[in-house]
Amino acid sequence: MSERIGQIARHLNYPKGLLAGQVAIITGSGQGIGAECARLFANEGAKVVVSDIDGPKAEEVASKIRSSGGEALAVPGDLLKDGYIKELVRKAAEFGNGKIHIIVNNAGFTWDAVIHKMTDKQWDTILSLHSTVPFKLVREAAPYFRVKDGEPRNIVNISSTSGVHGNAGQANYAMAKAGVIGLAKTIAKEWGPSFGVRANTVAFGHIETRLTANKEAGAFVEVDGQKVALGIPEKQKKSAGPVPYLDIPLRRPGTATEAASAVLAVASPLSSYISGQTISVTGGRNI
After folding, report:
1. What's the pLDDT tens digit per position in 41-54?
2. What's the pTM value of the predicted model, to 2 decimals?
3. For the chain, which has fewer Cβ within 10 Å, the N-terminal or C-terminal residue?
4. CATH class given for the domain over 2-210+255-281
């Protein structure tokens, strides 16, 4: 899909790429969907700011982009710390010679439990990372979006089918992901009329990432010294029945590249009249 988008760009007279000259902050871009967003955005001419809590992974993504002829800057740090959000915006603006054009609020992970067993720590951490952090980042970057210079600016919030439809065992994640849908609509209504800022949400279904891999693989994140296991238990996957991905019409999960391609499409001028919308990228799930 990403190659096709590039072909369309060239055909529509974007010889330097759909995002040529634009500065994009992509959170959680040290791996997975975020890293693919960084790569695809850079391929389309964007100057990409790679934000991730894992410094080596962030620098690796940025280095690969630079070695391929693109422009990228790694700014690692913890988005749950207000000081880092200020640093991220400041360095992005410096990298962009005083301008920022795109924010992709992608960073996050899951910390699941049924409602009656969910702790305050689980609730507060997931709400903070998936809802409060995008708000604080957008607020900090407001001076670079509330401008009238004729250049395109837009914000893409990453949500999930859990935020659109709810999901058992994910009350915290579902509420947080529903929240960023409302945030995007509000940005579109507040900053669209005077400044032309677009804001949309991309809601993913089952995408192949560490969050949907077998939990037994051992992926984890650390929260205040506590290891949080990521993924879906293999037993739970098998309980879905003998036909894999029966609830997905395409009968397969999406890839990180397919997910990132959808984000690129929404952020690009191909979607210049789309704002305040939630685009589901699910392989047909939940239709």
Report:
1. 999 999 999 999 99
2. 0.92
3. C
4. alpha beta
